[in-house]
Amino acid sequence: MATVRNAFAYVFAGDGKFCNASAPLAVPTEAVGWTDSTPPSKAENRTLVQAFGINVPRMITLTYGFGVGLAAFAGVMAAPIYQVNPQMGANMIIVVFAVVVIGGMGSIVGAIVTGFGLGIVEGLTKVFYPEASATVIFVIMVIVLLLKPAGLFGKER
Q: With a threshold of 0.85, does the pTM exceed it?
């Protein structure tokens, strides 16, 4: 029985690849919308969306519930690998903040592209110059904010 449990942990949790691969599943669902009326569901005007017959409070509740479900799923998949405690994600919060700032505040596409890009850059830095792998993200953040204060995909206000 231990072999089956270890195989399950490797296949579904492994070294975090399945957890990392399952995170982008939320993006297509949010980008396409929950209903067949895609353009109104992407609008930021609440009354206009309600005029198209979409129940906005229910959509907010469903979106929040879906996000909570994905977070719970990621926690279940990470539990066999990492020690489970209340501070599990505390070390990643500052990196996530850097990804959002570099991508541009409010830009989902910017956060996705920046997340993949910074993951590749950090991985390559760990291979070629491991001492700088913890700071390379913040150096990139400083450079991007000096050149484009709104972020790569952010809009100037």
A: no
